[in-house]
Amino acid sequence: MNKIILSTLIICLSINSAYSQKSKVQSAFNYLKYDQIDKAKQNIDEAVLDESTKANDKAWYYRGLIYMALYKHEKFNSLCDHCLSTAYQSFKKAQELDPKSEWADSSKSRIQLVNLFIINDGVEKFNAKDFPGALGSFEEALQIKPTDTMTVRYAAISAERAGNNAKAKLHLQQLMDMNVKDNKVYASLANLYTAEHDSVKALSIIREGRKQFPDSLNLMFAEINMLIPMNKAQEASELIEKALAKEPNNVALYRALGDMYLKLAYPKDAAGEPLPKPANFDEYREKCEKAYLKGLSLDKENIDLNFNLGALYYNEGVGFFNSANGLPVSQTAKYNELRANGKEAFLKAQPYFEKAHQLNPADQGVMLSLKELYAKTDQFDKSEQMKAELEKGGWSPTPAEKK
């Protein structure tokens, strides 16, 4: 008899416990309606942990609603750290427990709203320059909708701004894998590898991008900028020519093109020592000169083009003088011829150096070149004047220059 009574008591207690937990589910919803969110949270958290209600889809749906309400609640938002993420997990659980129930159906639309809230949270953090926080929010949103290319893009940009190159590369690669039609994705990913001194990987990404976007000037410029420091002058010059066909008034491209042909005309080894002139030296030299002149026809005030063209002529003049100085005394006629050619080259350089000096009077490199040029062309007054300007700027001659 006592055993029957005890069994009955246990059954009653179990029924009462189950009823109590179901009551907590309803109580949680009622507290939510009257904005008593702290009590709603306490009740629903207990309900989803209890054996009798942890498989109740309605309980999980209510939990999602309550955690959504906690997000940005003026009084109770501190009760959870990742309110929206918890809300999403709750709605997802409601769907999993009974995909055909009314709670599962309602959860679908709620999940979309949660996703929107999380993205908005990321945007707010981004605008406040909290880039790591923004990245975290966008990655939370990607757990809900991993194929949303806009969110992946936001995550990539946030990671870049946060200095998290690993995450930035991850999300940019995702965009490439998704075949997003934006050439900037390739350029951004290549820039990250360039910053890590992996120029080979960076170049391969840019070239992959150019296969997708063969007419993209953005990617052309990116590849040109990579080829130049890699000493791939031939490839760079060919690509610059293609870019100029699309943008014929780009002064910077003419300067870059001239620089590339100059490298091809006067090659150097890895240690920077001069190599023998190539067989097509004259062609490269002429193309270099033409590129600089074309750039100057578009922008006469360009200091780099003025100096570079002046340097081209000046160095040729130095070459003639050095050749003359290397001749035996008996070859007077050849000596005079080489010196005359040198002076002619110096005089060609003069107006461009003078223009560069006018544009930047403090540039000592230009002033030194002019001082030597004037001396070599018997313009001694001008040479002394340039020397005085140099000394005024703090320059003092080396022992060799004093001689």
**C-alpha geometry:** elongated
Number of strands: 0
CATH class of the domain at 300-403: Mainly Alpha
CATH architecture of the domain at 300-403: Alpha Horseshoe
The name CATH uses for the topology of the domain at 300-403 is: Serine Threonine Protein Phosphatase 5, Tetratricopeptide repeat
Please tell me the overall pLDDT. Answer: 88
Helix content: over 70%
Q: Give the H and E element order.
A: HHHHHHHHHHHHHHHHHHH
- How many distinct helices? 19
Radius of gyration: 37 Å
Distance between the termini: 127 Å
Q: Summarize the biggest pleated sheet.
A: none
How much strand? under 5%
> What low-confidence regions span 5 or more consecutive residues with pLDDT below 50?
1-21
By secondary-structure content and strand pairing, the structural class works out as mainly alpha
Describe this structure in words.
The chain is elongated and about 115 Å long. Helix content is 76%, strand content 0%. The chain has 19 helices and no strands. It is an all-alpha fold and 403 residues long. Among the domains are: 181-230, no CATH class; 300-403, Serine Threonine Protein Phosphatase 5, Tetratricopeptide repeat, CATH 1.25.40.
Features:
403 residues, mainly alpha, Serine Threonine Protein Phosphatase 5, Tetratricopeptide repeat, 19 helices
Secondary structure layout:
Blueprint: H1 2-33, H2 37-47, H3 57-70, H4 83-97, H5 102-127, H6 131-144, H7 149-162, H8 165-177, H9 183-195, H10 199-212, H11 217-227, H12 233-246, H13 251-265, H14 281-298, H15 303-325, H16 332-359, H17 364-376, H18 380-392, H19 399-402
Helix pairs in contact: 1-2, 1-3, 2-3, 3-4, 3-5, 4-5, 5-6, 6-7, 7-8, 8-9, 9-10, 9-11, 10-11, 11-12, 12-13, 13-14, 14-15, 15-16, 16-17, 17-18
